[in-house]
Every structure is written in structure tokens, then in C-alpha cells.
Amino acid sequence: MSRYFSKRHESLIPYVPGEQPQNRRFLKLNTNESPYPVSEKAMEYVSTNLRPLQLYSDPECVIIRSGIAELYGLHPDQIIAGNGSDEILNFLFMAFCDEERPAVFPDITYGFYPVFAQLNHIPYTEIPLQDDFSICISDYIGINKNIFIANPNAPTGMVISLEDIKTIALSNPHNIVVIDEAYVDFGAESAVGLVNECDNLVVVQTFSKSRSMAGARLGFAVGSRELIADMNTLRYSTNPYNVNSYSMILGAGVLTDEDYTRSNCNETIRTREYTVRELENLGFTVLDSKANFIFAASDEIEGGVLYERLKDEGVLVRHFTKPRISNYNRITIGTMEQMDELLSKIKMIIGR
Which CATH number fits domain 42-257: 3.40.50.720, 1.10.10.10, 3.30.1300.10, 3.40.640.10? Predict the structure, then answer.
């Protein structure tokens, strides 16, 4: 680092995104992107509704907030839009966490949570997952801290129930409970319907996964009007034009074609179940995922070795070095043809 870098951040360990190689063509199964393009109907919507790009984008994000509100039966004032769900998560740490209200989240979960806590100088606790990588609900009951839970969790893909979410929220009435639903559309139940029952609950979603917009960077959060107003205070204090016009209109267009989104999700679920069966037939342990990825390990080959061998063969998966999960690899679910290519490479590597 340079001698000008603030000492406030000298111990910050940044988030490490998945590889985005430029010098070689890979089968990319490492960053949970959708293998399906944005629908033609959505692209046509953009062509007829895009705001002139010489003008600033709408700071109130009316068109996308209205579309989300209609989809979930909420008021637009209960919704905030962001430059990806990561920006929304950062607003949540900034708005509601401090020395008196620390953060808590699982020890194995989305890697940005500790980064946002460190960036904003917020004390935080990581609660270990159970031996089977599930979340122990009692660990979060009445703990009087701001709680962040990815559901489905990443990188495990495992879920907790709506009943458990409600129990956690009601038992911590003086703190917020954030449910990060980046992968909810691939087989889990959304907690959006609980926000009117639990005024401390915030549900975060993204257009990156099920809606094929990872490159457009669009996310949102749903909660009470008061919580959303608090988050907007931070948004207007950092970047009121945080969602660009193209992404906003594209997102609105995507919402007009929910049948296409549901069809892609159903195909991803079908392909996931097929891939799990095939890997289990090869002796792999695969966790019970409700996401567009799976978390798999083999007794025949160490996780890091398999990751490197697959990379040599032109296939990228995601490997994590934390000791407890170092034997696992997170594998994005692509098309059926892509998963067959992955399986063929794995069989070759392990001598099957």
C-alpha cells in the first residue's frame, strides 16, 4: 500500500471476487451467473422505454420500485434499489450497525459480510455452523445484535424455514434481521411476506442470478417504510444516482416477463438435481442446495487439487481455503450440456 493510505483501513482484508479470466476461454461455473440470457421481451422493453442517457438516472428509481412493489404486493416506499445487492448490504451495515449494535452472521457464509463490518469499523461475531453445515436457530434467538443470514446460504446452498426467520426476528425486537435472498428463486421460500409482520426484518434480493442481470448490477431491499427511509438517508448521502438508467429499465423489463424467469429457474433446479445425482454416483458428498450452485466434496481427491485439475481442463469452479470447507468446491449450475461437460472432466480426472 502507499504511504498515503489511511491507517483506518490498513488492516482491511478486501473481498475476493470469483475469477473473471480474460486470456482464455473457460467453462465458467465459478460465480453463480445464469447461463441464460435476458429475455427478448425485456430487451424490447428497454428499446422503447430507455431514458436518454445524456440525462441523469431517476434518483427515486420509480419504475423499478413500482415493478417490485406490484410483484410482491407492497408499497413502493417499502423498497430501495441499489447498484447490486452488495451496495444494499453495505447500506445496511452503515445505517444500523455500530459499537453498541454489533453485527453477527455465520462463520461460513457470504464473504462480503466481514468485509463490510471491517470497512465500517463495526464489531462482529461469526457463529459457527453446525457439523452438517446447517444454521443452529437457537444461536440467534434473543442475542440483541444485528443479524445477517444468507438464505439460501452461500457457499453451502442450505436454507432455514420462514418459521425460523420469524422466530429470530421476533426474538430480537431491538435489532434488525437481514435475510439475504440472492438465490431464493431456485427452490427456497422468500421472507418478503414477513416484512409487514416483523418491522425489524429486511429482505435483500438481486437481479443478478435468477433474472440474468449479473453484469447490469441491480439489487433491492424490502422492509418497513421507516427502515427503507433510514437506508435512503445513506443512499442520498453517498450517491443518489446509484442505479443507472439502462439497468433500471432493463430490470423493469425483466419484471414484465416473469414466465421466462420462472422457466429458467425450473430448468436450473432440474439440472441441479441431475448433477447432484451424477456426482453422488461418483462418490461425492453434496450438500442439500436450494441455490443455483452446489457444494461438493470427494474422498478420492482433495478439493483444491480438483479445482486446479478442472482449471487445467478449461473448467472454473470456486474453491475456498478455510480449513473446514477446503475439501469442497462450489459449482455453479449451468445448462445441462455444460454440466455434462463438467461431469465428463471430473470422471477423467478421478479415473472413472
Answer: 3.40.640.10
